[in-house]
Write a structure and sequence with these properties.
Elements lengths: L1 H8 L13 E6 L7 H10 L3 E6 L13 H8 L5 H8 L2 E3 L5 E3 L3
Parallel strand pairs: 1-2
Antiparallel strand pairs: 3-4
Length: 104
């Protein structure tokens, strides 16, 4: 409880503009920890920030989104055409992160 209170008491707006590396900020649109407006404001304050908000997703659910993996790979510039096809829904990833033909 104390850590949650400390987290909400901290105001990072003053330091966010000082970030000098590209940032991928991910969030769920059903996050109960941080309001969407706060997330969008943080993204605006970070000079080189890409914001991805996943629909129907909670705070921790963002990293479980089927798009998260491809978004991270695309952000780092390390994504293949086949992985982009996964993002587009042409293929699916199995649990071993091997690409297999999508079900028709």
């Amino acid at each position: 409880m104390a850590s949650a209170e400390a987290l909400h008491a901290f105001d990072p707006r003053e330091v966010l503009p000082n970030i000098r590396v590209p940032v991928l900020l991910v969030a769920g649109d059903r996050d109960v920890w941080f309001a969407r407006e706060s997330i969008e404001q943080a993204a605006q304050l970070i000079p080189d920030c890409t914001l991805k908000v996943y629909p129907d997703t909670s705070h921790f659910g963002a990293i479980r989104s089927p798009h998260f993996f491809v978004d991270v790979r695309a952000f780092t510039g390390n994504v293949s055409e086949r992985e982009l096809a996964v993002f587009a829904g042409t293929f699916e990833l199995d649990e071993a992160v091997h690409i297999k033909r999508g079900l028709e």
